[in-house]
Amino acid sequence: MNNWKLSPSDFAFLYEECSRCFYLKIARDYQRPRGPFPKIFTIIDGLMKDFFEGKRSEEISPDLPPGVVRHGEKWVESEPIALPGRESTCFIRGKTDTIIEFDDGSYGVIDFKTTQTRREHVSLYGRQLHAYALALEQAARGKFSLSPISILGLLCVEPSDMNRDTDGRVAYLGDVTWIECPRDDEAFHQFLDDVVELLESSDPPGGNPSCTWCQYRDEARRTQL
Length: 225
Known about the structure:
The protein is an alpha+beta fold. The protein has a single domain, classed as Alpha-Beta Complex (Lambda Exonuclease, Chain A), CATH 3.90.320. The chain has helices spanning about 10, 15, 20-30, 40-50, 55-60, 120-135, 185-200, 210-225, and strands spanning about 5, 65-70, 75, 80, 90-95, 100, 105-115, 150-165, 170-180. The strands form two sheets. A five-stranded mixed β-sheet has the order 2-6-7-8-9. A hairpin with a 5-residue loop joins strand 8 and strand 9 (about 170-180). The relative contact order is 0.19.
């Protein structure tokens, strides 16, 4: 019986982009080549996390309960998750962006986005947040755990202006937008069930016809001497 390791970061795009690539990565350990990732995004992400660490949640959004931003970038891992009717189990392992510790003793899981996020993306990114929440509340023995998780959401900062100080340094200015992702554990477990059903297949699915990685693999197979 397999115990599939699932990464929350794969839920937002890889699974949606191409089920075949997702299957090959998890079930066959055959990953897409890593593309270049601009260093500037890593720098901005780190600055955002450092800036908001220790801030009161009221400074982020009046829609948030009172609390303090804590626990930036924590590795989390869930215990094995059994799904009804499935032969195999799965577990979630990934690294959170940050967590808010609310004054009432509950917690909020937050993802930072360096862009404007549209409302239609909430369900997509919500899968990541639900995965982190599950891993925190049902943590594997000895792993970082917090409970209960009461709020999931996205903190979006999109640069819209620039300013220059007296030292000649420039700074980007942007609006901060808080978007809450409603928690729906039933829907997330159904999503996990769909994922495990896919992974239990003996053969990879057809995938997305527009996936350039699949097109490359298929063409390489056809032209192999």
